[in-house]
Amino acid sequence: MDYQTAIDYLYSLGHETLAMKLGLENISCLINKMGNPHQTYSSIHVAGTNGKGSFCKILATILVESSISTALFTSPHLMDLTERFQYSLKPISINDFCQILSEIKLTIDNLLSEKSLLARPTFFEHVTAIALEYFRKCQARVAVLEVGLGGRLDSTNIVTPILSVITSIDFDHQQYLGNTLSNIAREKAGILKKGVPALIAPQQKEVKKVIEEVAEKVGSPLIWLEDKDISATYDRDGYWKINYLDKDLILGLRGKHQVMTAKLAICAIELLNSQGFSITLDNITSGLKNTNWPGRLELLNNQPDILLDGAHNPHGVDALREFLSTWLIEKQYPTKVLIFSTMQDKDFSSMTKNLFPLFDIVVLVNRNDPRAKQFSKIDGNFSLLSKEIIIAENVDKALKIAKEKAKINGLITISGSLHLIGEVKKLLKENFQPFEEKIYGI
Questions:
Q1: Does residue 396 carry a pLDDT above 90?
Q2: Do 219 and 330 reside in the same domain of the chain?
Q3: Tell me, what CATH number does 19's domain have?
Q4: Does residue 386 carry a pLDDT above 90?
Q5: Cβ(162)–Cβ(42) below 8 Å
Q6: What's residue 383's pLDDT?
Q7: Does 442 map to a domain?
């Protein structure tokens, strides 16, 4: 199986979200037939609404800085599916990806023919199986696994980790997880396991109550981050630093919201050290500073500059707005343009009210995605939120319009969807447009 055949096969299984079937029966059957590869290494299982991807990347970076054999599984990807499966922070090779998928497909075909499986596993069940098997082949010591959606019925929930982590919980994916915070929290808390410590970020009162109920029921000891007293101060250019053990640690990811993520990662490291790991303060220091997580307040040095952020729900947009409200004053861009696209199931009204007023011009883009919100006219409800609002028929047109409006010394911010971010990065790469990410210290 070559790479294009592999990709075609996976996407023939249906849209990752629209064709999703939550449940553990299929993945359990498949992974058991594969010899339970997830049992050959320790796992850290991470759920939450916002910040779980950033937490996973920070934690994995610290572990790699500690010379620990580390694997990382995240979703979605931005430009290439192989980004989801990382070992030592490097994506899986095309050859390994194709070989492992071929083996998994053969296993599935056999299970279907013998009626052990009644339906072919979904896209996300396939990629979960690829990750778990790849990490075995890499002889990983630790795998950091990000939940795809929810937790209780997510295919990653077949693992019994050494540590469960829940980042902040808020409204998102209500059609799958429920329309109340309590329902959403119950699904996320479904990753808690008997005897497995669970590290929990600060939560709203309603969410905290549900997590405590689930933890008591399953017998999972809880560690709340509220108990971790680590001070933080602004550094420069959107970066923050925290004081830990009387040492100032620079965060390599922009935004004040990453302070909480870093605190959560440090607490996770302390818990891992209590289980026999030997991760030093120097490892933590270098890991925090060296973390790179594309599409999350990623600034491209261009003419004009381009800021990419995958905020895709009101909570994420709030964090982006907080960042921009101070950073834009510091940067003093003469013209600020926003390219925006989101999914149909997102709270579009809330996001636009919080974000659009920060920009001189907003370009709404119609993406070729069955889940993406389409714009046919300027709605009067948000036409007053920015000086000028334009509708672009595709991402390429949106970029051209934004560059013309921003000129060489302005700023283009792109947000609303990680899928939009990925499409933009592909276009920049395909057009050989020179850009360089601005990272801390440069």
A1: yes
A2: no
A3: 3.40.1190.10
A4: no
A5: yes
A6: 60
A7: no
Q: Which residues contact 430 (CB under 8 A, 6 or more apart)?
A: none
413 lies in the same domain as 306 = yes
CA-based nearest residue to 125, from 157, 103, 98 = 157
- C-alpha 214/C-alpha 211 separation (Å) is 5
User: What is this structure's pTM?
Assistant: 0.94
- At 138 the three-state DSSP class reads coil
Confidence band for 16, pLDDT divided at 50, 70 and 90: confident
Residues 167 and 185 in one domain: yes
The answer, yes or no, to whether residue 153 has pLDDT greater than 70, is yes
Name the residue range of residue 218's domain.
3-290
Q: What contacts 331, CB < 8 A, 6 or more positions away?
A: 411
Element (H or E) spanning 301, and its range? strand 298-301
Tokens of 250: 């620079």
For the chain, give the mean pLDDT.
92
To which H or E segment does residue 355 belong? helix 348-355
3-state class of 424 per DSSP? helix
pLDDT at site 227: 59
Domain end, chosen from 241, 267, 290, is at 290
Statement to judge: residues 253 and 332 lie in one domain:
no
Pairing of strands 231-234, 240-244: antiparallel
Q: H or E element: which one contains 25?
A: helix 25-33
Task: State the pLDDT at residue 442.
Answer: 39
Neighbours of 131 (CB within 10 A): 27
* pLDDT confidence of residue 432: 57
**Of the candidates 262, 290, 318, which is a domain's last residue?**
290
In the chain, the number of structural domains is: 2
**At 75, which amino acid appears?**
S
Cα diameter, the chain: 66
- The answer to whether 92 touches 86, Cβ cutoff 8 Å, is yes
CATH number of the domain enclosing 375:
3.90.190.20
* 314 Cβ contact partners less than 8 Å away, ≥ 6 residues apart: 170, 171, 347, 350, 351, 354
Length of the chain: 442
List the Cα angle 236/229/73 in 5-degree steps: 70
- Asked whether residue 327 is assigned to any structural domain, the reply reads yes
